[in-house]
Amino acid sequence: MIDYSAALAVAAIVRTGSFEKAARALSVTPSAISQRVRLLEERLGTVLIERGNPCTATEKGAWLCRHVELVGMLENDLLERLPGLGDPAAGPITLDIAVNADSLGTWFMPAAAAFADSSKALLRIAVDDQDHTADWLRRGHVVAAVTSLSKPVAGCKVSPLGRLRYHATASPAFMARHFPQGVTIEAVARAPAITFNQKDGLQRDWVRATLGTGEPGPTHWLPSTQGFVEAALLGMGWGLNPTQLVADHLASGRLVELVPGATLDVTLYWQVGRLVSGQFPELTREVLKAAKEALL
To answer: Any residues with CB less than 8 A from the CB of 246 and at least 6 apart, and which?
Structure first.
């Protein structure tokens, strides 16, 4: 049998970030929290909590936290139908979601805000590349994700969201300095690009789709959606930016497209666990509504 007092202690530590805050949340002493976690880790023969500031879950600890959240959803659902069984679980449910940075910076937040306004649940949003957010679902770290993966992850329902359009942009001064003879394979290989992180392949995909072959050249690393736009405006490099963030700059001439009309579309999907989909249908409803209004 699962020791749920210990499992709840682990989940509370991860949620609050410390043993002391978890103790206050569960109305027990910090020593009781420590003992529960220590005994459970000894029983399982593995570390569940990475001690630090804040404390975080190990991979196995994350699986346990995920289970606790799912059990809490089931209990709340049952108590709504059979209130005589007892009191609802203390505190709101927290739903972990993985979203790519450009969606978070353009269209996703209205959906999150609308859900928060209509639901008792809280959201904990993790950010990763759209090609990798599905991995968070597979590892059990999140219950839903905005992803480029159309094939459903086990236990999930998939809904198409639409296409997020990107423009390869740079400042006019940057274009004059690095592409005086136009955008060629050789010029792209020399001109500084802007890349979000090591997982970001949009610049490479655009080069291959537009020029047929080739690779971006030297790059600045900049893990910020808004920073991407600012860097392009300041002439640091060229990069792929969502239409929503650069439309005004393109219209005013502060930014220009490397190759006019050569856009890159990324198709996005919403994958959500079936239990969460049933418990919180308004989450999917708001995500699909926001995507319909913003995406192609």
So the answer is: 167, 169, 229, 232, 255
What residue ranges define each of the domains in the chain, with the CATH number in brackets?
4-85 (1.10.10.10), 94-162+269-294 (3.40.190.10), 165-265 (3.40.190.10)
Measure Cα distances from 242 to 99, 226, 265, 294 in Å.
15, 10, 9, 11
**3-class DSSP string for 195-227:** ECCCCCCHHHHHHHHHHCCCCCCCEEECCCHHH
State both tokens at 11: 């989940």
pLDDT tens sequence across 92-142: 678 889 999 999 999 999 999 999 988 878 898 999 988 889 888 888 778
Q: Which two tokens stand for residue 254?
A: 């502060």
What 3-state class would DSSP assign to 132? coil
- Collect all residues with Cβ–Cβ distance below 8 Å to 268 and sequence separation of at least 6: 100, 103, 130, 146, 147, 148, 160, 161, 162, 163, 164, 291, 295
Q: Give the global pTM.
A: 0.78
Q: What is the C-alpha to C-alpha distance for residues 103 and 226, in angstroms, rounded to an integer? A: 12
Nearest to 160 by CA among 268, 275, 23: 268
Residue 272: strand, helix, or coil: strand
DSSP character at residue 235: T
